[in-house]
């Protein structure tokens, strides 16, 4: 291979179709599958003929490299075929229908998804909203079929390998996107070989000086430690042979980007990073892994706090291994990783290793997708998040970055299902990750069998059980202060917005109903008659509403006004008829506490808005059809219609003993406040029908509303003085509704 060929491909080998065949022939034996791959190659070569890349080589070489990367992951033939065809619809005149006809529906769907992504022209837009929407579509495509993103990762990897051919601003844009979008996907899928290379190549163009500095430090340390590392490998091999443990030993050098994060983002000194160089012991089974760990710890001094067991608790991308750090015989510190062959394959190629193509197994892409969602719990969360239609593009990307890509706390449901959450998450975050309905009905939580606060911070290994109730009122605004995930916060905000809208609607319906009732009563129509008229199909259809509450809501908005509805119904005003019997006192059997001079049998009711009691200055209000309502003289509800007022008087020998009064108690918030107030009521024999308390968190004050029963105004004043003597209470007032 010429030096020119290597330079054209960014210093990487430029592969031929024969090289690709050598890679996929060992695991794809089916003749038809092999022929389909070659057919796709020839088809792509023909239709891309004459097209060149920025780096100068024929376009078909890019497709060959993409498929070579895919075959190295041992993907299925349909995925390799789609790898060859992924640009043919976008860059040539080939219609999608032809792909479907020649290569089948499965390949066609993958190519269609990739074409849609390509048409977004990623990294060309400057607007953040557009860019977030583009990235969201990438994840939506992945959520539908993971093969789409595996091809896209292979495509991006080869593009990054040949990035030197592009202008500096394009190098920066593609590197930024690779680091923020594609590398995290590769990491979560466990494809470490692609993830590490994408990160290192991105850093090379984003921070060239720092990349070069770390590269030089790494080369220097590797050269100086080669002899020491070889000695350690021989010693470990010797003790494993002595104990009859099957093994292979490999060396591992930490990636440049991983070192960059530790040095420049976390503030480590390069010489204080223990795991720059490591050895990896690959053995047969889990038991061998733990036996190897015990032997190594018995032979070398382990570094406290450096042991991690990812076999018992795998990472979210299925990574499993034992990690420990020891001091070697020459005083150097090394990390040692211990894993089985299968774990090693998954550690390198992740999801591709677990679901690598196997002939003769009735492969189904739908079944594969289903298994992925079951095995990779974060992938299920990705699917759910991608289907959240109410999330904006930016909010979606923020949720993805925090809730999924940064999730490194692993907790369990009581049935052993793993839920991964970001640091600082609480049982509420856990509940919403299980299901939105679980979050909305949560009333408590058990962590490791103990009842805990919903604000408790969860840690890896916790077993979490959420207590729910069908009668739960749902989340409140206080939850927003203790949740950590964007998913939970978004769902809580949506619930509160719907609740507020519902309450607001109910309030407006009630006000619209009352305004209608006032207008209809003014025409001499009572409430029952009004409801019968307004509930008719004629009225509802005329105003284009489904039910009478919708009409009341429209009346609140004065579209139509109650007067307009009355005019539509052609209801004429009825005269007020108020008939007095012959003068004389009210009969003794009349149980009303109030009388009207010169009135006979007339209905007299105490107003519920201002709750008058004996001793209050009162006045009567003549209503239409319901007699006289008694109000306190300062009641604002009668101020606008003085023509209907009439003198009324308290009876000296009234038959009622107590009257309901609504009161409001203002107090500084403190423990046992409500208990002390209830004790005061009890000690002074005050009957209470209802009592509620509302805390004002911003001012640390509490408002207590109560309905009590008193005989007269003097008794009420005495009760006010009793309440003002309760610790922290500073004001007691009567309530007018």
Please describe the structure with a list of short key phrases separated by commas or semicolons.
disordered N terminus; 737 residues; six-stranded mixed sheet; alpha+beta; four-stranded mixed sheet; Beta Polymerase, domain 2; Hypothetical protein af1432; 15% strand
Walk me through this protein's architecture:
Strands 1, 2, 3, 4, 5 and 6 form a six-stranded mixed sheet that branches. Strands 13-15-14-16 form a four-stranded mixed sheet, with no helix packed on it. It is elongated. Helix 7 runs antiparallel to helix 8, helix 10 crosses helix 12 and helix 11 packs antiparallel against helix 12. The protein has 737 residues and is an alpha+beta fold. The chain folds into five domains: 3-191, Orthogonal Bundle (Hypothetical protein af1432), CATH 1.10.3210.10; 214-349, Beta Polymerase, domain 2, CATH 3.30.460.10; 497-569, no CATH class; 594-650, no CATH class; 659-734, ACT domain (Alpha-Beta Plaits, 2-Layer Sandwich).
Summarize the structure.
The chain is an alpha+beta fold and 737 residues long.
Tally of contiguous helical segments: 29
> What is the first-to-last residue Cα distance?
91 Å
What is the CATH H-level superfamily of the largest domain?
Hypothetical protein af1432
Do you know the CATH architecture of the largest domain? Orthogonal Bundle
Low-pLDDT segments? 1-8, 122-130, 576-589
Beta-strand share of residues: 5-15%
Sheet/helix structural class: alpha+beta
Just give the CATH class of the largest domain. Answer: Mainly Alpha
At the fold tier of CATH, the topology name of the largest domain is: Hypothetical protein af1432
Per DSSP E runs of 2 or more residues, the count of β-strands stands at 21
Radius of gyration in whole Å, from Cα?
A: 39 Å
């Amino acid at each position: 291979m010429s030096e020119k060929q290597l330079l054209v491909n960014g210093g990487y080998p430029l592969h031929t179709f024969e090289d690709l065949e050598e890679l996929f022939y060992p695991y794809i034996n089916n003749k038809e599958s092999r022929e389909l791959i070659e057919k796709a190659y020839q088809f792509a070569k023909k239709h891309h003929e004459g097209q060149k890349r920025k780096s100068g080589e024929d376009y078909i070489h890019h497709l060959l490299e993409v498929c070579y990367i895919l075959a190295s992951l041992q993907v299925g033939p349909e995925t390799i075929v789609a790898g060859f065809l992924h640009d043919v619809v976008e860059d040539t005149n080939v219609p999608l229908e032809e792909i479907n006809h020649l290569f089948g529906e499965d390949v066609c769907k993958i190519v269609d998804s990739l074409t849609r992504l390509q048409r977004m022209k990623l990294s060309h837009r400057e607007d953040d909203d557009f860019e977030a929407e583009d990235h969201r579509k990438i994840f939506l495509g992945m959520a539908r079929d993971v093969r789409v993103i595996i091809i896209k990762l292979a495509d991006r990897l080869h593009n990054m390998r040949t990035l030197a051919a592009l202008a500096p601003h394009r190098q920066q844009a593609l590197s930024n996107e690779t680091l923020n979008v594609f590398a995290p996907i590769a990491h979560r899928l466990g494809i470490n070989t692609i993830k590490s290379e994408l990160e290192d190549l991105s850093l090379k163009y984003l921070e060239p000086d720092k990349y070069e500095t770390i590269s030089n430090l790494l080369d220097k340390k590797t050269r100086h430690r080669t002899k020491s590392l070889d000695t350690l490998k021989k010693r470990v091999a010797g003790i494993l042979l002595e104990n009859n443990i099957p093994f292979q030993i490999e060396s591992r050098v930490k990636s440049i980007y991983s070192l960059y994060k530790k040095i420049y983002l976390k503030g480590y000194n390069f010489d204080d990073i223990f795991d720059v160089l490591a050895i990896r012991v690959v053995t047969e089974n889990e038991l061998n892994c733990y036996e190897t760990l015990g032997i190594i710890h018995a032979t070398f001094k382990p570094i406290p706090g450096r042991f991690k067991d990812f076999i018992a608790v795998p990472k979210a991308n299925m990574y499993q291994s034992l990690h420990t750090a020891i001091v070697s015989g020459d005083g150097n510190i090394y990390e040692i990783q211990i894993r089985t062959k299968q774990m090693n394959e998954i550690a390198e190629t992740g999801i591709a290793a677990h679901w690598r193509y196997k002939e003769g197994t009735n492969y189904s892409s739908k079944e594969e997708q289903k298994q992925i969602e079951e095995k990779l719990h974060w992938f299920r969360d990705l699917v759910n998040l991608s289907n959240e239609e109410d999330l904006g593009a930016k909010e979606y990307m923020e949720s993805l970055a925090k809730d999924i890509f940064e999730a490194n706390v692993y907790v369990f449901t009581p049935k052993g299902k793993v839920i991964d959450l970001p640091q600082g998450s609480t049982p509420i975050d856990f509940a919403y990750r299980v299901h939105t309905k679980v979050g909305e009905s949560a009333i408590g939580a058990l962590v490791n069998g103990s009842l805990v606060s919903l604000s408790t911070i969860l840690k890896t290994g916790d077993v979490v059980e959420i207590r729910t109730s069908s009668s739960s009122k749902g989340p409140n605004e206080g939850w927003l202060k203790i949740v950590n995930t964007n998913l939970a916060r978004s769902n809580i905000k949506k619930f509160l917005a719907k609740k507020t809208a519902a309450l607001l609607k109910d309030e407006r319906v009630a006000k619209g109903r009352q305004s209608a009732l006032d207008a209809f009563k003014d025409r001499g129509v009572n409430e029952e008659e009004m409801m019968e008229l307004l509930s008719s199909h004629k009225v509802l259809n005329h105003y284009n509403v489904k039910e009478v509450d919708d009409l009341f809501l429209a009346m609140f908005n004065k579209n139509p006004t109650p007067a307009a509805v009355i005019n539509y119904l052609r209801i004429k005003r009825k005269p007020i008829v108020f008939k007095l019997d012959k003068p004389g006192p009210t009969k003794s059997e009349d149980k009303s506490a109030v009388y009207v001079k010169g009135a006979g049998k007339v209905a007299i009711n105490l107003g519920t808005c201002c709750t008058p009691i004996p001793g209050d200055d009162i006045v009567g209000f003549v209503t239409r059809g319901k007699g006289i309502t008694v109000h306190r003289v300062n009641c604002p509800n009668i101020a606008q219609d003085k023509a209907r007022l009439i003198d009324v008087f308290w009876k000296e020998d009234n038959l009622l003993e107590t009257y309901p009064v609504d009161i409001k108690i203002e107090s500084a918030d403190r423990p046992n406040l409500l208990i002390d107030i209830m004790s005061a009521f009890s000690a002074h024999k005050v009957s209470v029908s209802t009592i509620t308390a509302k805390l004002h968190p911003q001012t640390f004050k509490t408002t207590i509303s109560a309905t009590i029963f008193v005989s007269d105004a003097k008794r009420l004043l005495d009760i006010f003085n009793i309440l003002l003597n309760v610790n922290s209470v500073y004001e007691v007032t009567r309530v007018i509704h």
